[in-house]
Structures are given as structure tokens and as C-alpha cells.
Amino acid sequence: KHFKIQYPLFLAPLIIEYDKHLEELNGQLKYYKKQMGEMKLQFENVIKENERLHSELKDAIEKQLETFPFGTDMGSDIYTDDETVRNLQEQLQLANQEKTQAVELWQTVSQELGRLQRLYQEHMTEAQIHVVESQKQKVILDFMDFISYISVFITNQHFLETVTEQNVEIEQLRKQLRSELSRQKLHTQELLSQLEMANEKVVENEKLILEHQEKANRLQRRLSQAEQRAASASQQLSVITVQRRKAASMMNLENI
After folding, report:
1. Residue 167's domain spans which residues?
2. 222 located within any domain
């Protein structure tokens, strides 16, 4: 047989109130367990996102390091790129440190929460439950602060990723500008070479014109001299012809 314990009547309201309070505490415990489970899932998602961003940031930095120029003629660009690399490496190191601290803090929070849950299960007196509730509320508040910290950390990771992408774009623009500058320099040199050749050709043509002009003048002088000699020879021939005719006439008269 099972006997029901009979309590004094004056204790009934207290027992009812205690049972009600205990039921509320059990309900709160279930709520906290559910809330902590959701927070744990949220934190695991944050950790996964953090690891993904960390991996992408590391890959982006490694790719940027591989694409950085190391020529001796880059001048101040190399110094700027080196500074960018050092800054990104420092940011990556800080990100790794923050990640390690975040994991350690999460482990500490998980251990503290487990300890409080064990304490709650082992000691169910009202005073101890009140203390545990206070501590649990503090742990939850600390964990919410930690979630806010993780959110800021992820924002910083996004910022670093954006900076890395912008640096890659800037480096690509620099390469394009260097290539365009080299092409323009080569084109300018070709134009200067063509201009120099054209000037030399003009000078050469001017020399040829002067030579042809002098040759034409010489030929003109020779032609004039030849014409003068021809005219003189023609006059002399005419004189000789007249003299011969006179001589022939005189010889004919003498023969008669």
C-alpha cells in the first residue's frame, strides 16, 4: 500500500507556493537549456563562418603575395606593396589571436555552464537555486556579450577581406597602367624615330634639289657657251665661204 503523507493544514499554502516556485524554476531551466542550445548552435555557425572567412582571407593574402612585383625598377611601388603585405600579415596574425581567444572564451563559458547545471541538479534548495539562477543569468549575459564580440570580429574579417580585394584591384590597375605607359613610350619612340627619318629624308631631298639645280645651271651655261661658239663658227664659216667664192671668181677671171 502507498500512504499519502499528511501535512499540517497551515503548511499547505507554503507547500503549494513551493511546488509552484519549483515548477517555475524547472520551466526556466528548460528554457535556459533550450536557449543555450540555440546559442551553442549559433556560436558553432559563427565559428564555421569565422573559419571560412579566415581561410578566404589567408588564400587572398597568399594570392596577393604571389602577384606582387619584385623588380628592381619598381621604386616606391615595391615599398608600398611591402608595407601592404606587412599590414595584412599583422592583421591576419591578430585575426588568428582573436580566433584563439574566442575559442578559449567559448570553452570557459561551456565549462562554467556545465558546472552550474550540475550544481543545479545536485542542490535543489531554494537559496541555492536562487544563487545558481543569478550565476546563470550572469553567464548568459557574458555569453551575449561574447556573441556581440564575435559579430564585431566577423565584421572586422569582412573589412579585411574587402581591403584585400581592393588591394588586388589596385595592383591590377597598377599593372594595366604600367603596361599602357610602356606601350605609350614605345609608340612615342616609334613616332620620334619616324620623325627623325622624315627630317633626314627632307634634308637629303633638299641636297638633291640643290645638286640638280647646280647641274641644270652648269648645263645652261654650257648650252649658252655652245650656242655662242656655234654662232661664232657660223659667222666664220660664212666669211670663209664668201672668201672662197671671191677667190674662185678671181681664178676664173685669170684663166679667161
Report:
1. 9-200
2. no
Contact assessment for residue 57 and residue 162, using Cβ atoms and an 8 Å cutoff: no
Q: In this structure, which amino acid lies at residue 76?
A: S
Residue 89 neighbours by CB under 8 Å, 6+ apart = 61
Total tally of structural domains belonging to the chain: 1
- Whose grid coordinates read 645652261? 220
Tens of pLDDT, residues 180-211 = 888 888 988 888 888 888 888 888 888 888 88
Residue 13 lies in a domain: yes
What cell does 63 get?
A: 594570392
Please report, for the chain, how many H helices and E strands are present, in that order.
3, 0
Alpha-carbon distance 40 to 106, whole Å?
9
Other beta carbons within 10 Å of 231: 10
Main-chain phi, psi angles of 209, to 5 degrees: -60, -45
Q: Residues 216-226: pLDDT tens digits?
A: 888 888 888 87
Nearest 10 degrees: CA dihedral of 107, 113, 114, 118?
160
Residue 178 in domain = yes
Number of Cβ within a 10 Å radius of residue 133: 16
